[in-house]
Amino acid sequence: MISATSAAIAVAAFLLGSRGWEECISTTDISSRLGLRPQLVENAIGLLGEAVRVVDDCVLVSDPLDLAIAAIRLGASEKIIAEKLDWKMFEDYAAKALGEAGYNVYKDLKLYSPFKFQVDVLGILANHGVVFECKHWNPRASTPSKLKSVARSHLERVKRLVMAWTRLKLPRPLRGVIRLVPAVLVLREHTPAPIVEGVAVVPVSRLRGFIEELPSLAYDDRVKVFIVD
After folding, report:
1. How far apart are CA 135 and CA 98, in angstroms?
2. Which of 81, 112, 136 marks a domain boundary?
3. Residues 57 and 164 in one domain
4. Hey, how many other C-beta atoms are within 10 angstroms of the C-beta on 34?
5. Share of the chain above pLDDT 70, in %
6. pTM of the model
7. What is the largest CA-CA distance in the chain?
8. In this predicted structure, what is the pLDDT of residue 22?
9. Which domain holds residue 35?
10. Domain closes at, from 81, 111, 138
11. Is the pLDDT of residue 142 over 70?
12. Which of 40, 104, 141, 170 has a CA that sits 20 to 30 A from residue 161's CA?
C-alpha cells in the first residue's frame, strides 16, 4: 500500500506537471488521475506544508518552487522534479525572496551593444548586492566541472554588468561603493561546494538563509566580489 509520503511526492509531481498553480484542480481530480484514495490525497497535501492549500476543494499551489522543495525534502527525485520546472520560476523566486528582504530588484538585465550580455536577477541593498544566474539543469549534470564552467561564464557576465552600469541606469552608491556577490541559483540540495571559482552556489531551499548572509559574504575573501563605485 502506498504511503502518505509517496502519495505526497506523486501529488507534487502531478501539480507541477499540470501547472496546478494556474487553474483549479480538485482533490477528486487528483484522486482519480493518480488512482489514490481521497483521504490519502488529503493526507498527502498536508505533508506538502504551506506550498499547497485547499480552498473550496480547489488545490492551490502558492509557489511552484516551494512545492518542488517540499517534494525533494520528502525524497522526490531531483531529476524528475527539475524536468517540470523552468528557469523563469527560479528567476521569479529569487526576485521575490530579495524583495521580501528589502532589496531593490532588477530582472532580466541585458545589453546588445557595445557588447552582449544578460543577467537574470540583480538585488541591491545599501552598499552590497547580489547578481544571480538562475539554473535548473538536470542535477546529475551539476558536477564540479559543470559548475566551474557556469561560474566562469557568470563572472564574465557580472564583469560586463559593472562595465554597463551607467548605460543600464542602475543606481550608484550614495557614498562608498557597492560590493556585488556573484551567485548561481540551482535546484540541487547538495552541491559539490558552496563557492566555486569565487561564485556562490545556492540551492533554492537555502536561498533565504543565503540572503541573510549576503552582507558578510560581500567581504568574504573566497568570493570574487565586484565593485561599483
Report:
1. 17
2. 81
3. no
4. 17
5. 93
6. 0.85
7. 64
8. 65
9. 4-81
10. 81
11. no
12. 141
pLDDT band for position 7 (cuts 50, 70, 90): very high
Nearest residue to 186 (alpha-carbon basis) of 110, 103, 94, 101: 94
Looking at the fold, whether 95 and 199 belong to one and the same domain comes out as yes
What does the block give as the cell for 174?
550614495
Distances, alpha carbon 42 to alpha carbons 13, 15, 56, 154, 220, in Å:
15, 14, 13, 43, 46
CATH classification at residue 183: 3.40.1350
CA angle 90-95-100, nearest 5°?
130
Nearest Cα to Cα of residue 186 among 68, 99, 102:
68
Average pLDDT over residues 134-140: 68
Q: Are 124 and 131 spatial neighbours (Cβ–Cβ below 8 Å)?
A: no
Burial class (CB in 10 A: 0-12, 13-18, 19+), 175: exposed
Total domains present in the chain: 2
